Write a sequence for this structure.
């Protein structure tokens, strides 16, 4: 049977406009692992690393979906406020990870994200400088589904009936 998992939906927030281009799985994963290691030491890092992965990422909206084991979720969530930067191509971009939602399945996070994106779309579109940006943002938001290859890992099931 699959281990119970939690999915943590976060948003990368940065004053630095170029930060968007460095939002990639590897950079986010390294920044989160680094924060867990600093806050909880090797033990915490070991607990979180077992099943930790970046499941979804949207560079336009800055939305990131992290997966971890249920018993390590508290360690992960308590370390997220200590992420201070993302590093890409030897450049460091200051940012913070704002936790939006913690769910038991990818589907519950997706439902939350759809509602959240509806509220955010108006704000994003107001800040567009040209039609191309506007269309890119709309396309990105409208296609935001947290889908993945259908696997036998049990990611979609509610592991223990709780959300």
């Amino acid at each position: 049977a699959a281990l119970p998992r939690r999915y943590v939906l976060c948003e990368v927030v940065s004053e630095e406009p170029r930060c968007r281009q460095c939002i990639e799985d590897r950079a986010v994963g390294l920044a989160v692992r680094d924060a867990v290691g600093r806050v909880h030491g090797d033990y915490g890092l070991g607990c979180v690393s077992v099943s930790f992965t970046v499941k979804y990422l949207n560079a336009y909206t800055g939305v990131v979906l992290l997966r971890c084991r249920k018993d390590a979720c508290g360690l992960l969530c308590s370390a997220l406020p200590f992420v201070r930067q993302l590093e890409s191509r030897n450049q460091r971009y200051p940012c913070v990870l704002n936790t939006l939602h913690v769910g038991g399945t990818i589907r519950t996070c997706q439902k939350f994200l759809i509602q959240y994106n509806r509220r955010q779309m108006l704000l994003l579109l107001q800040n567009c400088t040209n039609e191309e940006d506007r269309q890119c943002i709309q396309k990105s938001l409208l296609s935001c589904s947290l889908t993945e290859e259908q696997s036998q890992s049990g990611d979609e099931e509610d592991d223990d009936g709780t959300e």
